[in-house]
Amino acid sequence: MKRVILFCAVLVALTASAGAQGLRFGVQGDFVNFNLGVAQTNVQIPQVGSLDVSSLVKDIYGLGYGGGIHFDVDLGLLAFRLSGDYIMLSPDKAKYQSLLGPLGSQVTIDGGRIDIYSANLNLKFNILPLPVIHVYVTGGGGFVDIKMNDATLSLGTFKLATVKAFDTQTKPTLNAGAGVDIKLGPVALFAELKVNFIMTTGKTSSEVPLATVGLTF
Known about the structure:
mainly beta, single chain
């Protein structure tokens, strides 16, 4: 997490010094579909059996949402965007229970949320610079901090197990995609789609935003 904050702070300073005249600020919302890779792990749960944690992460996490802020340095056809985002993924408890076998429907699950903090520096290149609409391609990289809260599994008042699929990881990330800016006077509305690759321990994870929309002032 410290590396993400430091990366973001340094790039804000560099971005501001590079082009204070073209520096713009904005906010965005993120909706993502996540394929999270972790090492193969099994947890033995009394009265229920073995739980494959790698299957758990793959099968019960997917859609996530969040938002963040960004700074743009506009250089005409080219622009640089520094963005910081937070995304949260919560487990589908019904799917969680289905992985626990015959007694799964009687098990209660508390916790298990995944928090993702990211800082990225992207290059934007306008390929269709019309007066109002700008279509662009984008690509870049940065750092992502991923952590998972413990999930407590209980049967009635009896605590069965505490499950944590992975330790907190701060990893590099790369992304590429495309988007569109719509100029509305001094404000620009944008929407973009990117594929993000996070070099998590176990295997590379991928994140495909279903929608990233925001405003740049």
